[in-house]
Amino acid sequence: MAKANPGEPRPAQIKWTEDMRLTLDVLMLDFNFDRDTAVALFSGMFKDHLRKCNDPEVNWRKLHVQHKEKKREADAGRMRNWGFCMLTDEHAFARRNAVKAKISKAKRELSTVDTPPTTSRTTPAARPKPVTSAANASKKITLPTPPSSASTPRTSLPRNVRSTWKKRSASIASLTESEDELVVTPPRSNKARKVVTAVSPNQPADPPATPGSRTQALKTWRESRTDATEYVEIRPGKGAWLSMARAIDARGPPVCPHDDKAHPNVTGLMYRVYDEQSQSPLSPHGFVAGRHALTLRLPASPPPTKQSPAWIDMALHLNRDKVHTPFVSCSINLMWTLRLALEEGQRGREKKISIIDSSRLERKKVFWARPFHAALCKVVQFTKGAFYYHGKWEFMIYDRIPRNAVIKTVSVQDIYDLASRLPDVGATLRLNQIAKLNKGYLSQVLPALKAQNMKLTAPVIKSIARIAEFLGVGHTFPLFVSGIVSDVISEWGIAVCRQTEQEWLAKADIFATTICSGETVRLKDFYLMKAAFRDGVRWGNASDYNPRFEVAKTNRAVKKAGTVGLGGSMKPLTDELDAAKLGLMVFEREVQKSLPQGAGGSGSGVRRALLENVGDDEMDEADDVAENDDSGFDESMFADDRAADDDDGDDDDGEDALRQFRGELMNDSDDKSSVYEL
User: Fold this and answer.
1) Are 325 and 393 members of one domain?
2) How many CB atoms lie within 10 A of CB 588?
3) 395 - beta bridge partners?
4) Residue 678 Cα distances to 147, 179, 328, 580, 587, angstroms
5) N or C: which end of the chain has fewer CB within 10 A?
6) To 10 degrees, what angle do helices 458-470 and 478-491 make?
7) Do residues 520 and 596 both lie within one domain?
8) Taking the mean position of all CA atoms in its chain, how far away is CA 124?
9) CA distance 71 to 377
C-alpha cells in the first residue's frame, strides 16, 4: 500500500458520535439490508454531520471495520466507545427501538425516490445511424451493378439458395445504392471467423486434420481421472494434476497440532444428528464408522498416532466426499445440532439427535476438527464449501461411538412437542427463528436472538432445567447439567446481568428445586445442582466459543464472570452448609437443656461428632449463640460423658445418633425447601 505524501492534505475522516455508533449497531444486527442499501441509509440519516466533516467517503468497508471494534472491545474487557450498545436496561431498550423506527422511516423514504423513466416497449428507441469514416470505408465491399434491361428474364433460384440468400440479406447492416455501384457494409461481429482458401475444381482438397496421439491420450487420461482436482508444482515450471491423497504426499504432510488442541478435554455432552440413510446410523454396536462397518467381529484398530495421523482420511471426511472414512462426526454445540436437525426436517428428512456421554470415549480417539482443518488448508484445496467450514464445534471420533455412551435419542417431533407442552420452554428455544434456512448462525441468527434481550429470569431458569431433563440429564450428572446451562445461555444469546450474591443464590435455588422436583434427592445432590447452575452461568457468559480449551479464553471468561457477580469459588454454598451445621449444634444444645439434670443420653456423642466435622471455633460460636444457662444446664455432664467415652474408646454411638437425627428430620418434613433452608 502506497504511503501518502506528507505534502498532500489528509482525506476527510468520519468523526463518530454515540448516535452514529448506535445506529450502525442496529443497522448491522436488527436488519438484513444489502450493502448498498445499508450505506445509503446511513449516509442519508447523517448527511448533515458528514457535510460538517468535509463529506468523507462512506462505503461498506468503513462501516464493517467500525462495527468490528465493538467485538474487539468486548474481548479486551474495556468498553471505551461501544459500552452503551451492550446495556440491557429499559432506557437502552427504548433508545434502541427509537433508532429502529428511524431506520424504517428512512427505508420507506428511500424506496419512494423517483426512478429514471424507462423506454416503453411499444415505442421502439431510435437506432443510431452508422457513421461512415475513412477507416470503415476501407472495409466496404464494392459490388458491380448488373445492367438493367427489360428483356432480361427473371429466373427463380432453388429453395436452398433462396433461404441462404434471405439469411445473408437479413444480416446486412446498411445498404447504399448509387448510379453505378452497390455498396454493402458488413456487420461487426464478435464471433471468430474461419478463413477458407478458394479451391479450383481441378485442385484436390486436403484431408481433415486429426488430433495427434499425444493429445488424444491426454484427453482420455483427464476424462478418466476425475479425482485429479489439484495442480501440484513438482519442479519450477513443471506440474501435474493429482488427487487429494497424492497431493498431500507430494506437498508433504501438514504440521500436526499439539495434543492439547488435537485432543482437548471434553467434559460436557456431545450430540450427533443422523437418519437411516446416514453413513453411520445408530446400531446395536453404537455409531460405527463407515469403513469399519464390516469389521465388527475384528478388534478395533488403534487410533492414529501423533507421528502419523490419518491426514488423507481427515481431508476426505472434512470435504464431505461420499466415501467411507474411519471417523464419526459429532458436535458439542446444542444450537448447531438442533438447527441442523430442524433444517433437514424442513427439507423432508426426518432426523434424530443422540445425546452422547463424552466421559465414555477414549481421549486419544477424539479429534477436534478445528486444528486439523487449519493444517490441511495449507496443503489441500477443499471443495463444496469445506474451505470455509472451520469445524469449531465438530469432533471426529475414530472407529466408533460405543452404544453405552448414548444416553438418549430424541426426534425433531419430540422437540416440537416439548415446546408446545411447556410454553416457557418454547419461548426460550424460539424454534421458528433458529430453523430459518440459509441463515448464518454467527452472522445472522445469534445477533437476532441477542437483540431480543431475553434475560435470565425465573421462567428461563426453569426452562433450562426442563431442557436438561428432556435430554436425559438429571441431578446425578452435575458436569453435564453445567454444560447444558452454559450452552443455552451462550448459544441462545440470553443476557446475564450483574446480581448480588444473595440474588444468585436465589436463582440457584430455583434451578435446583425445578430439576429435583418429583424425586427424592439428598442434600448433597441438591447443592451440587446449585453449584452446576452457577458454573454453567459463568461459562455461558463468556464471549469466546469453547472457552475451556485455551488458557487465554479461560482467563477472559473468569474475568467476565466476576463482572456479573459470579466468582470462581463455591464459598457461598459452603457457607450455607456451615450455617446448617451451626443450626444443628444449637438445636442439640437446646435438646440437652430440656433433659433432666444428670441425664447425659447421647448428647455428648452428638457433640463430639459435630466437633469432628465442624471444628472448635464454630462450636464456640454455637455456644455464644445459645448462651442461656437459666435452666440450670451443667457443662460438667459433657466432661463426665466424654471421660466415659474415652474409657470405652467407642465413638459410634454419637455418630449413629447424629445420622438418626438427620434421617428423622428428613422423613418428618414434607416440604423439601424447608429442609434445604436449614
Assistant:
1) yes
2) 21
3) 330, 368
4) 126, 122, 49, 5, 11
5) N
6) 120
7) no
8) 54
9) 26
For the record, the C-alpha cell of 428 comes out as 426460550
**Shortest CA distance to 533 belongs to which of 453, 428, 461?**
461
Residues 6+ apart with CB under 8 A from 506: none
pLDDT for res 113: 60
Q: Domain range holding 659?
A: 574-676
Task: Give the β-pairing of 327-331 and 286-288.
Answer: unpaired
Instruction: Tell whether 546 is covered by a domain.
Output: yes
Instruction: Kindly report the CATH number assigned to the domain that includes residue 391.
Output: 3.90.210
Q: What count of other Cβ atoms lies within 10 Å of the Cβ of residue 488? A: 23
Structural domains counted in the chain: 4
At 53, list the grid cell: 466533516
Q: With b meaning 16 or more CB within 10 Å and e meaning fewer, what string describes 492-521?
A: bbbbbeebeeeebbebbbbbbbbbbeeeeb
Distance CA 34, CA 63 (A): 13
pTM of the complete model: 0.54
Same-domain status, 366 and 504: no
Q: What is residue 534's three-state secondary structure? A: helix
The Cα 505–Cα 461 span in angstroms is 13
From 105-119, 438-452, 514-528, 565-579, the region with the lowest mean pLDDT: 105-119
N-terminal to C-terminal alpha carbon distance within the chain: 70
Q: Element (H or E) spanning 143, and its range?
A: strand 141-144
> Are residues 406 and 288 both part of a single domain?
yes
Tell me: the pLDDT tens digits for 324-375? 888 999 999 999 999 999 988 888 888 999 999 998 998 888 998 888 888 8
* pLDDT mean across residues, the chain: 73
Is the pLDDT score of 431 beyond 70?
yes
Q: Within this chain, do residues 562 and 587 fall inside the same structural domain, yes or no? A: no
3-state secondary structure of 339: helix
288: which DSSP letter? E
* Last residue within a domain, chosen from 566, 583, 613: 566
Give the span between the Cα atoms of 489 and 428, in whole angstroms: 10
Strands of the 400-401 sheet, one edge to the other: 282-283, 286-288, 400-401
pLDDT at position 245 is: 61
Picking from 58, 83, 99, the residue at the C-terminal end of a domain is 99
> Which of 611, 612, 628, 629 has its CA nearest to residue 620?
611
For residue 647, give the C-alpha cell: 474409657
Domain identity same for 553 and 594: no
